[in-house]
Design a protein that fits this description.
Layout: E1 31-34, H1 48-55, H2 58-73, E2 85-87, E3 95-101, E4 107-115, E5 124-133, H3 141-155
Parallel strand pairs: 1-5
Antiparallel strand pairs: 2-3, 3-4, 4-5
């Protein structure tokens, strides 16, 4: 080729820049965290969900932790719960429970929230607290009142109070 006849230059391809998402996507995996009571609400700053799990029989605790892990990785709206992961209804709408039966047909419940609004964090599966009850009984309304109160306490601060 003659020196004055160079081939045309190719345009360089530039990476396409995409705007950063301000909120996590619906299909992102969730991070599992425990709600920690804030010092302004309880000076001891207990972690009710962790305390509940530690008090559960080992097999119940192992099953609940396995379900939480699977739900968070799914993510939660895609998880086929198999009776373990259930969305709650009525006054408890927006909350979820993990249901596991233990020895002597005793029932254990772990109450959770899904949070996509936590400042600086991806989507969270928040373990709030738990409760247990004998076979063929119902939890008293006061248990559900306490769960909702903890949920309100968790949501009123951002950054969240987590462990």
């Amino acid at each position: 080729m003659a020196p004055d006849k160079r081939p045309p230059r190719r345009a360089r391809s530039r990476p396409v820049s995409r705007p950063a998402r301000s909120r996590p996507g619906r299909d992102d995996p969730y991070q599992v965290v425990y709600f920690r009571r804030h010092a302004e609400d309880d000076r001891a700053q207990p972690i009710p969900g962790r305390e509940f799990l530690r008090a559960c029989p080992p097999k119940v605790r192992a099953t609940m932790v396995a379900v939480v892990t699977q739900v968070a990785a799914s993510p939660p709206h895609r998880f086929a719960g198999g009776g373990y992961w259930e969305a709650m209804h009525g006054e408890m709408a927006g909350y979820f429970e993990i249901r596991v039966d233990g020895p002597g047909r005793h029932h254990y419940r772990l109450f959770c929230l899904l949070d996509t609004e936590a400042a600086g964090l991806g989507p969270l599966l928040v373990i709030l607290t738990g409760a247990d009850k004998p076979f063929r009984t119902t939890l008293p309304a006061s248990v559900y009142d306490d769960v909702r109160a903890l949920g309100r306490e968790y949501l009123k601060r951002n950054p969240r109070s987590i462990a």
